[in-house]
Amino acid sequence: MTDSKDGFIEPAHTKDLDRRAFLFRLTTLICTSAGVNLLLGAIPFPAFALQKQYGWRYCQNCYALFWDGRNNKGRCPAGSVHVATGYDYYMLIGDVGEAVPPGQTYWRSCQKCNAMFYGGYKSQGNCPAGGSHVRQHELYTLEHDRAAAGGEQPYWRFCNKCYVLFYDGSPNKGRCPTGNGHIAQGFNFVLKFGHPMD
Question: Are 26 and 18 in contact (CB under 8 A)?
C-alpha cells in the first residue's frame, strides 16, 4: 500500500497498471504515422538555439577578421596588435550545418592572435604569435557563395597560407604571418554586421 499526498491510500499494483497502460498507449501512438506527426508537432523543439556573438572586427593592418571583445587585441602579423575599423560583425556560435545553406563549419577563434581561422584540418595554420593557431572552444559556421543582402558583406575568404578569414574585396591583400599578402582560396563567405563602430 502506498500513501498519497492527500492521505488516500492507493494499492501499489494499481499504479503499475496505470504505468503499463500509459506506456502501451504511447507506443501505439508513436508507431502510427499520424502519431509520429502528432508527437513531433507537440514537442517544442528549438529550431536552432544559436547565440549571436558581436565584437568581430576587421583589422585595418592585416585585413583579418578578429574578435575585439577582449582587453587583449591579439597579435597582428603587421606588427603589435590588431586595429579594429569598420563594421561590428556577428557570428552564430554553433554547428548549424545545413540549417544555413550553404555553410561551412569548423571555424574557430585563435586564443593567441584572436583571428577567425579554419580549424577543420589536421594542421591549424600559421599564427602571428608563433607556431600554429590554438582553438578556442566555440565553433562557428559561415555562410558562403550566395548574394549578400542588406546588413551583409561578401568577399571574405580563407587564406591558404595562414588559414585565417580575411577581406578580399580590395587590391591590397593585407598581411599574412607567412609573409606578403593573404592568398584567397575556396568559398566566398558572406558576413552579417550590425552597425559601423567608428
Answer: no
**C-alpha cell belonging to residue 60:** 585595418
Q: What is the mean pLDDT of the chain?
A: 80
pLDDT at 119 over 50: yes
- pLDDT class for 99, splitting at 50, 70, 90? low
- 30: which 3 cell numbers? 508513436
Q: Which of 110, 1, 4 is nearest to 56 (CA)?
A: 110
